[in-house]
Amino acid sequence: MKFLTTTLAGLLASAALATAAAAECEMTLRSSDTHPDGYPTVEGVKAMAEEVKEKTEGRICIEVFPSAQLGEEKDTIEQTQFGVIDMVRASFGTFNDIVPVTQLFSLPYLFRSEEHMHNVLDGPIGEEVGAKFEEHDLVALAYYDGGARSFYNSQKPIESIEDLAGMKFRVMQNDVFVDMMDALGANATPMPYGEVYSAIQTGVIDGAENNYPSYDSSGHAEVAKYFTLDQHLMVPELVAVSKMTWDKLSPEDQEIMREAARNSADLQRQLWADQEAASEEKVVEAGSEVIKEIDKTPFIEAMVPVYEKYVTTPEDQDLVKRIQETE
């Protein structure tokens, strides 16, 4: 009984402290993330929250809800549009049906490297794309790094485009991905992510494609020992705030939010790079062979029909051209 009384007292004390902390804030913003606590995107928004609270002297607080506590990405984007929640972190891919320009960022080999992607998003193009979100009741605050997807397989090292000929790779159920594999001379096999391990193990497919941390955490490195760092897809992550919430802020507080978001992006990108490096080290130690020295030019040139199919308007063609020309 004494233990229960002590535990209850502790819980009540914690609740009282949380209530007191919330009472100090004139405005508390709720931010959603589907990733678990400790994930780079979650830690990025937490860092933003700390900076905002400090610079507003505790007037504005941001409470981060990880692990899809407020819903999956598509649902939380809609909730943010309607002001039900205040902020959301989501992949560009989830915005495709809402902000059409985001579809271009699913084009294969659009970015030459992660550094190239950062340079594009941190410059005039990033501002231009961000402005498109306001038309849909969202204010883009920061672009996070979602990593680069590369090919891995159980059969052989992929060192050239010719090595892909006839191989079977699992891809997401997406027409662009299917067309990409066709253009590379390989066979696309859409299937649920959870079935990939056994499909590679039993030879139903030869491999799949994803980033280092996913290749590691899924266990796919156990059955597909050859990882080719071709980085064919880099889809940014976005931190956005509801325009309804944004309009309640003073211009000074809006600038504090923007600056804190930009600073959090630097942290998030470093945390992601650290996570990639740790995963690479782990899979290499476990016996994976990582192929880095490949000529991407033939891979990129093979995408011409894919771009012709999906980049059809003069506006989109101009944007893709400017992205490719960015140093």
From TrEMBL:
InterPro entries named in the record: DctP_fam, TRAP_DctP, TRAP_DctP_sf
Cellular component GO terms held in the UniProt record: outer membrane-bounded periplasmic space
Keyword S-adenosyl-L-methionine attached: no
Pfam families: DctP (PF03480)
GO biological process: transmembrane transport
Domain of life the protein comes from: Bacteria
Keyword Signal: yes
Intracellular or extracellular location(s): Periplasm
Keywords in alphabetical order: Periplasm, Signal
Endpoints of the signal sequence: 1-23
PANTHER family named among the record's database cross-references: DICARBOXYLATE-BINDING PERIPLASMIC PROTEIN, PTHR33376
Protein name: TRAP transporter substrate-binding protein
